[in-house]
Amino acid sequence: MRRIAPPAALFVFSLLMGFFAHRLGLGNISQPGPGFFPFWISAGLTFSSLHLMVWSMRELTADELFAAAETVFSLAGFRRVVVVMLGTALFGIFLEALGFILTTFVFMVFCWLVVDRQPYLRGLLISAAASGTSFILFAKMLNVHFPRGLLGF
Amino acid sequence: MDEFFSTLYFGFSVSLAPANLFACFVGVLVGTAIGVLPGLGPVATMSLLLPITIKMEPTAAIIIMAGVFYGAMYGGSTTSILLNLPGEASSVVTTLDGYQMARQGRAGPALAICAWGSFIAGTLGVLGITLMAPPLAEMAVKIGPPELVALLCLSFLLVIQFSGGSRPRATASALLGFLFSTVGLDPVESTPRYDFGSFTLMDGVGFAPLVIGLFGISEVLISLEKGGHMEVFKGKIAGLWPTRQDWKISAPAIMRGSFIGFFMGILPGMGTIVPPFLSYSIERRISRHPEMFGKGVIEGVAGPEAANNSATAGSMIPLLTLGIAPSAAVAVLTAAFLTHGVQPGPLLITEHPTIFWGVVTSMYTGNVLLLILNLPLVGMWARLLTVPYRYLWPMILLFCCIGTYSVSNNPMDVFLMAVFGFLGYMMRKLNYPGAPLVLAFVLGGLFEEKIRQSLVISRGNYDTFIAHPLALIAWIVSAALLVYPFFLHEKKKQSFPLEEDE
């Protein structure tokens, strides 16, 4: 079942994209509209995902399918991946509000202390050093404009 | 011939200017470092450098990015030989004999032949660009929208065919890339598409969040899932000069590898990954002692290393003459050209000779710099491998976030990068190749524009797509590529009735 899930997700995604493309207007063959190209690409993806679904089902028997799905992801590893991914997404969300230095410091603390379980003092020191050096390198030396945030730094 | 030398002289006068020489040095240095360190490939690194190079002069910016590309090929071999851990996908083959040589105490000659093989192949490859690019560009000027549609179609099919993994998954990956390229304003009528009321999406999906997410973030996520452990090399590297016998065996392998790599690199989809495998299998086939391959033979290191470096040079030809990127790394270079307002393609030589010849000749200089960096400093690169990964990954993540943010100063791009990072991770786990997605994303806008232009010009007449002989040939080859797997499948079924198609 899990092997069919990715092409099934692609299938649903392609149907949605095709629907929105159709609403944009396909135009006609001598004057294609804005939805023309995405619509036909979505149609291609629908066909491709259907093909993948059938192909995935034919590829392995039910038992093999279950065994293969079990080995693809390890639960502990996957949890770690999701946590890091969410942390990175939150970095983007809070960057404007908290400013670069504070967001970076919190992000580094999260990586080194929460995800990697480093000793507290070492983790805090490395996080402070990393946010300070990256600010000097990118903001001062390479002139990247970072948001200052509510606290003004 | 006089023209050849005068253009080369002009090119060197550009590339040896202090700023450009420094850019070349920085590029190859960074390239070697990221090639040595597993965890951040050339594609993600080049994307990270993209925002930093925006304020630079275009020639220096492209030189630095190209330097990272071919520098990573050099650096990738170090980890393959010392740790049995390929720094780059293109260095996978080097592990087979390179690591065995290191275990036998011959790490020095293996590293040295890698550096020399890469230098010779890289230089021959650049010579190939110098000779082949101008006539090809002259031919390419005559290509109209319908022919370009056919050539792009052929390129996508080749990428799907040779991207590794299954073709249905590669096809889905490419189609996904096309769909991502349609987000934002329509290139003809400027109608917003798939923006869902978001200003970030109205601007289109950014190149940096997509590529850094798919390649940089996903690499970190994969390493973290595995626990992020890395074995450290503790042996001594000695004898950094191959013996006369080593040279005698390696020289023909280097020449064959250079030739194979260059011509395969030109073909879309081959990238720098397929040529080393082909070179290795040819070396093994023609060897008098094929049974020794995999046990530490020097030609098993020399041939593939030469192939992956000359493939880097070969893959620049479609970009510089047609504006088509044959691999993900070259797609990032395309983005670099476009960011600086330079359209890569047939008019590049006439409209921007400084950039074209400056970049081409910088690759000669870069190869010399790489030889200097890689031979005497090999001990330093090996020491770099002793940095524990637990200190590296948070910094890689931070650089990815900063790199993405600084392109458009939009924090939502960092959020998008995280989403693409997760998509990249899932794709890698489920064996969906990322290269077709990136290529389709980069060339999707051009592809759509040319299809629509062709249809408008011909008033909806489909014959326009096959009217030109070049387009017709491209369609025939495309059709053959589509049909060929079915014949192969039938043949396989006859030989191995119980075997699955993948």
Uncertain spans of chain B: 495-502
pLDDT averaged over residues of chain A: 84
Most extensive interface, chain pair and sizes: A-B, 65 and 64 residues
The strand count of chain A comes to 2
What is the count of distinct domains of chain B?
1
> Overall 3D geometry of chain B?
globular
Description of the molecule:
The complex is a heterodimer of chains A (153) and B (502). Chain A folds into two domains: 5-72; 75-141, no CATH class. The mean pLDDT of chain A is 84. The termini of chain A are far apart. In chain A, strand 1 (27-28) and strand 2 (31-32) form a beta hairpin. Chain A is an all-alpha fold and 153 residues long. Chain A is flat and about 60 Å long. Chain A contains six helices and two strands, in the order H-E-E-H-H-H-H-H. Chain B is mostly helical. Chain B has one domain (2-229, 239-494). Chain B contains 22 helices and two strands. In chain B, strands 1-2 form a two-stranded antiparallel ribbon. In chain B, strand 1 (184-185) and strand 2 form a beta hairpin. Residues 495-502 of chain B have low confidence and may be disordered. At the A-B interface, helix 1, strand 2, helix 2, helix 4 and helix 5 of A face helix 8, helix 10, helix 19, helix 20 and helix 21 of B.
Distinctive features:
heterodimer, A: 153 residues, mainly alpha, two-stranded antiparallel sheet, 6 helices, 3% strand, flat, B: 502 residues, 22 helices, 2 strands, disordered C terminus
SSE inventory with pairings:
The complex is a heterodimer of chains A (153) and B (502).
Chain A: H1 5-24, E1 27-28, E2 31-32, H2 36-59, H3 62-72, H4 75-98, H5 100-115, H6 120-141
Antiparallel strand pairs in A: 1-2
Chain B: H1 2-15, H2 18-36, H3 42-53, H4 58-83, H5 92-103, H6 107-140, H7 145-162, H8 167-181, E1 184-185, E2 192-193, H9 199-202, H10 207-225, H11 244-266, H12 274-286, H13 299-314, H14 316-322, H15 328-339, H16 348-351, H17 353-374, H18 378-384, H19 389-408, H20 411-429, H21 435-457, H22 469-495
Antiparallel strand pairs in B: 1-2
Helix pairs in contact in B: 1-17, 2-4, 2-17, 3-4, 3-10, 3-15, 3-19, 4-5, 4-6, 4-13, 4-15, 4-17, 5-6, 5-13, 6-11, 6-13, 6-14, 6-17, 7-8, 7-21, 7-22, 8-21, 10-19, 10-20, 11-12, 11-13, 12-13, 15-21, 19-20
